[in-house]
Amino acid sequence: MRRPWHHLFHPANAVDYREAVGLTVDHLVGHVADTAGRPLTGITPRESAERVAAIDLDRPLGEEGEALAELSRLWLDDAIWFHEPTAAAHLNCPVVIPALMAEVLISGVNSSLDTFDQSAGATFIERHLVDWTAARIGYGAGADGIFTTGGTQSNLQALLLARGQQVAPVDRLRIFASADGHFSVQKAARTLGLGDEAVVPVAVDVSRRMDPAALGAALADSVAGGGVPMAVVATAGTTDFGAIDPLPEVAALARAYGAWFHVDAAYGGGLLVSPRRRDWLEGIELSDSVAVDFHKTWFQPVSCSALLVRDGATLGHVTWHADYLNPKDSAHPNQVDKSLQTTRRFEALKLWMTLRVMGADAVGEHLDTVIDLADAVAAELTAMPDIDVAAAPQLSTIVFRYCPPGRDEAALARINAAIRAELFDEGRALVAATRVDGRSYLKLTLLNPVATLADILAVVEMVREAGERLADAPVAPRPRGERVAVVR
Ligand SMILES: *Cc1c(COP(=O)(O)O)cnc(C)c1O
């Protein structure tokens, strides 16, 4: 329908608004009903780029239905659907409905969380959630935090606060993180002007957890060489293995060296609400800061994440007063004083609606369910003679590969890459790839509480069946799905 008011949200167009949103929801639900066991179609970057490039943005369609139909061709027909159990590659979750209700309100009202005079009650909803999360961590009075765009931003801000606490010259500052830690720690070091060399990778043990003896040795070495330990980053749930570093031991070493202790719980933070596994995070309360991605193990839409700090005063390192926004003598509580961002979406409302409708236990039970599933899948995989499991799962990932006898590393790398590409190209399953100690592996990341053991074993069967076929295929460049130079 063509609407005179379609570009504005105004009382006069409430009827238009409801119709347009209803149309959009119907369109989406139609697509969801259509996916039926296919998480993707395997569209190539080339096809996708060509379709999008053909759109002339200077010629509007002027009508919602046509725009939605066009969008189906450009995106939705070939989208990646995370509610499908066979989408098992990334830490991107299926989302809960209360959070989607919140999304309607977040964008419709368009509060901005930088200042109280742009958000009113939203400021206190965010603060209440921060206090609640801090209490779950086990922080005492004086704790604080802020919602962020994701673990990457939380890690950056945590390290910025850590740097703010130091007086030593920047070129001597060092950050210690597990060799399996997230690359956003390196990016943060670079952003902060510390340089790539500032991050000292610490060896992991056989279960892929940071080895405290190795951390102790790395700290001692660094100090002996003139380094100043600025921060120790423990990971609670590494991206590949879900490994949770030994938090109490790491905390003790960080404290002994006067370093800021940050816990990157972007992945494992969901354990804060797990009815059965909260104790896996023991020691997290000893940290100076924690990153939690609600958009991973809390089943929230991207993006929804937070940085929590033990001592709220440390957030002062990001405070800047501007006369036009948050003057020093402002009588209002302004969240911008604690954030790297200025204009900021009310992402916290998604978590709020989820907790108010479903409750924390329901969220944690979902996470427990996917951890149980990962254990069950790993037990099956371990019993398969042609499958090599890299390590027992710790959260909800399983790193494994198809491994027929008598093949060298290069052959196994080729076969497993070909398996993954074929499943993607044919739109049958989305499986991840990673490298472990220089060897190529596949990875299942399970975040769908509705997925069953049978669903995931079906993916494993696809892997084995493709592997058997591809193991002896001639090495040839693949015709579809190859990297295309022009794709941006
Ligand atoms: C995903 C992840 C991050 C990055 O978080 P984003 O929300 O993607 O920015 C950081 N650390 C770990 C351990 C992660 O799994």
TrEMBL record:
Alphabetized UniProt keyword annotations: Decarboxylase, Lyase, Pyridoxal phosphate
InterPro entries associated with the record: PyrdxlP-dep_de-COase, PyrdxlP-dep_Trfase, PyrdxlP-dep_Trfase_major, PyrdxlP-dep_Trfase_small
Pfam families given in the database record: Pyridoxal_deC
Xref: Gene3D superfamilies: Aspartate Aminotransferase, domain 1 (3.90.1150.10), Type I PLP-dependent aspartate aminotransferase-like (Major domain) (3.40.640.10)
Cofactor field: pyridoxal 5'-phosphate
Superkingdom: Bacteria
Homology family: Belongs to the group II decarboxylase family.
Identification of the protein by name: Pyridoxal phosphate-dependent decarboxylase family protein
Organism: Nocardioides astragali
